């Protein structure tokens, strides 16, 4: 691994000077290169590149370093890229647009096929002509035919807006033709699985009214139920098929480790295996699959990814790479048909994100993700742990300013408390654009994986149920108190910043522990949980599994109005002393803009220091380069006034 280490040292020295460009413009910029994908032969790559006013998908012959195709990415906004053949690429895209007969705009997933040789781009499933117009996910591909001429894609079909059927469609990739019904479904169907010849293997259903989760196998041209259970929402995830196509791959919690493990379910009789991939300290986060959903191995959860594969030689190869340099994060991005060529996305100290190609035992650099940020400017991130007041261990990431070495006895630092969204998600080791921006401004950035976070076992997640505004909030407070006691931070200079659930946590911190935070920044955050639950019930119905899930997460049972009122920051503005900055996307469909609008009104009426920044044409995820930079500019102005 000596050659790899030398390559990493070389990468860390790379970067472009940007003396005249502001930090918000640099750190708010989207990745220069993303979505790196590899062709079946390993000789071609495709990726998205964004630089200034240009946003392109580029296809390159890496053997000859030759450009062979490309499109304007703004036309489709790709989120995933798949090679089907050497000459055909599928883009799974996200478009924000209106749907006929529905109010407002929505995020709609679609898929396009790009013919490299003919330079033609075509959408695969188009709403209308039997394809139900009111659906937002038309980009899912469950398989490709053996001759690589057809894709199998599920979609709601029919004119009945209340109960359209979820069918499996067969779509021609080689020429423009109307999609055909390949399998007729029901409204309760949520997924399909196909075999190596494109034949039907199984389908998954969830009956919301009765809470029945069902797997049906295709036998003698009929659907035969092989598994069912009654659950308020799905606890088992069916994510692929085994290479022999005789079993489905299932992820669910292990009773032994209390972490997600890998199982198989036999398609002959529904029998569930013992755990195949299981780790006492890590859960299976996802499976490694090809476009036909054949599972080769798994990726485990954790600040840095780790892997296990069925193929022992491949398992040894990957783990030798990952374990040889534990200070870096190696994320598998793509691979060729035989795993001879593998693209890794590499992050860690001195790297703002680089794509490396592993081929024939060596490594070569394909591209840097952020060409305007030199490795020498990347702040150090360390893994840390502290104990909450009730004894629960809280895994944490700390990002230190470049001028300070971690835990080196330096003067106390101003700090940013940065709780993640979700709340069932977690932060990863690597280049977090917000954390790195704050570190560049001289802050120690604290990212606790508070109870309720995923990635650290079911017990850690379930410990957060019913603890919004309470123990989940105590975990953040305890991080500040702990790092104050160690002498790392100045307790009089702590600002709390968060997005989505993190925005709720920021506002809750201001309302319920006003003595802790000097300033508060909420990005697309929830302020009124009663309003949130009303919106969810209006969108889904009171008996929908989504509403049942939120009741469990927020209240650990039915969430009554009093509880929701008690833990909603909007009802406690009189307790807030710190200045508040509210930033919200105009077209946020996850947490509506009105959550920040009404919070601003209440704070303003109470004569509190509050600023509201409305990001026009922006969604929940700060997806736009322009508005992400605008958000950071507003944050920088706010911090200069109240913290710096």
Report on the structure:
With 644 residues, this protein is of the alpha+beta class. It contains 12 helices and 35 strands. The strands form 8 sheets. An 8-stranded mixed β-sheet has the order 28-29-31-30-32-33-34-35, sandwiched between helices. Strands 5, 6, 7, 8 and 9 form a 5-stranded mixed β-sheet that branches. A 4-stranded antiparallel β-sheet has the order 1-2-3-4, with no helix packed on it. A hairpin with a 5-residue loop joins strand 10 (143-144) and strand 11 (150-157). The longest helix has 18 residues, at 625-642. The two termini are 43 Å apart. The mean pLDDT is 91.
Overall geometric form = globular
Question: What proportion of the residues form beta strands (DSSP E)?
Answer: 35-45%
The total of beta strands comes to: 35
**Largest sheet geometry:** 8 strands, mixed
What share of residues is helical? 10-25%
| Low-pLDDT sequence parts | none
* Average pLDDT, all residues: 91
The computed structural class is alpha+beta
Give the strand line-up of the largest sheet. 28-29-31-30-32-33-34-35
**Structure annotation, total helices:** 12
First-to-last CA distance: 43 Å
Radius of gyration: 25 Å
